[in-house]
Amino acid sequence: GGGGGAHRDLLARHRAVLPDWLALYYAEPIEITHGEGRHVWDAEGNRYLDFFGGILTTMTAHALPEVTKAVAEQAGRILHTSTLYLNRPMVELAERIAQLSGIPDARVFFTTSGTEANDTALLLASTYRGSNQVLAMRNSYHGRSFTAVGITGNRAWSPTSLSPLQTLYVHGGIRGSGPFAHLDDAAFIDACVADLRDMLSQTRGVAALIAEPIQGVGGFTSPPDGLYAAFREVLAEEGILWITDEVQSGWGRTGDHFWGWQAHAGNGPPDMLTFAKGIGNGASIGGVVARAEVMNCLDANSLSTFGGSPVTMAAGLANLGYVLEHDLQGNARRVGGLLIERLRAATAGLASVREVRGRGLMIGIELATPGHAAAVLEHARAGGLLVGRGKYGETLRIAPPLSLTVAEAEEGADILERALHAADAGTDGG
Ligand code: PMP
Fold it and tell me: Which cofactor does it need (predicted)?
């Protein structure tokens, strides 16, 4: 990467005024200036195939005309109104999400981020159950507010343990290491369930279990199908709520299912689900869906000033309509299936690759060597491809916009194959 004077100046100003812990990718960080379809361009005019979708916020495609038009039209009428007045796009999007959620008698509350959605879910669960004790998964990520870091198992993203919640961390979200790593799927599930029972026998009145069906930041790790269904049986005995964090796994990304929890649906829908990231195709929408009985447990007037803004709701409606009309869940299944096979074949002989895993267009490549992902990212960037990193060991995260074509999947896999080889050879990422 080159880096012109203006670019270097922006980087220096970023470093001078923003927090040190707001880490940027790449030795020469990228300034994205525009996008189209599955591609983005940087300030120096370089074009990249985007296999990370701006950390999954661009669910469908960059600059999708349907979404751009809906946002422009709404912004042209009024940029923002208050949640104290009726809001047609908010009601319409809530109706669609309630119906898609699978939760009976569902109510929807909109926020502006996934963090705030999880905060709200915990507020509801704690209030409903009269307890601040919650269960979360090891290696989880749920956001960066004071309560959200308190349920984030991965310490790399959870800078404090002074949480207002009392959190107990459960086994099961990751398979690669830990005491149950050697077990087959059925025995793994049994062991995790026994561990959960043991933990619960030492507590009283736990409010909820919150879990990502596939851990996102944690490296796209999937528990065996059925794990959460088995957990659910145990939780139901004590009335403990099940909250599924669908911020990364929702909206058809996993191909086979619209929501990640549906791979574990043995005992029906969750009590609550949280969503964010992709639904606005880049516009800031988050939210919680809960059974009415749970949602309505708050004895207070409570609203979010920006949650449900007509502009972001217009983006969500246009985007969701596009996703459903064009069967992008089916596209994620088909193209994601091809991509994962291609990546497995391309990396089969590489000692530096431990595993290629995933569902649909949510694919993780676990590397064998600590610190190796940064080098692979540099080489991929030099080859014109953006991918992400994850934190279970050393993982590359691949989550392209759901409209990815077969040709683009093949092109990206080829670039990544070359990047992995180049990183192995230890050559300069350029
Ligand atoms: N939950 C999960 C599973 C996430 O991956 C993230 C974001 N990486 C969040 C919650 C927090 O969402 P936000 O960044 O919108 O606050």
Answer: pyridoxal 5'-phosphate
**What's the 276 CA to ligand 1 centre distance in angstroms?**
7
Closest CA to 380 of 150, 123, 50, 90: 50
Domains of the chain: 5-63+327-425 (3.90.1150.10), 66-325 (3.40.640.10)
Predicted complex: ipTM over 0.90: yes
> Which mutation among 137, 141, 221, 222 tests ligand 1's pocket best, with the greatest number of atoms within 8 A of CB?
141
Ligand 1 centre to CA of 148 (Å) is 9
How far is residue 186's CA from residue 242's CA, in Å, rounded to a whole number?
21
The contacts of residue 151 (CB under 8 Å, 6+ apart) are 118, 122, 134, 136, 140, 142, 163, 165, 167, 210
CA 105 to chain centre: 25
Measured in Å, residue 107 CA sits from the centre of ligand 1 at 21
Torsion, Cα 266 269 272 274, to 10 degrees, reads: 90
For the chain, the average pLDDT equals 93
Average pLDDT over residues 212-229: 92
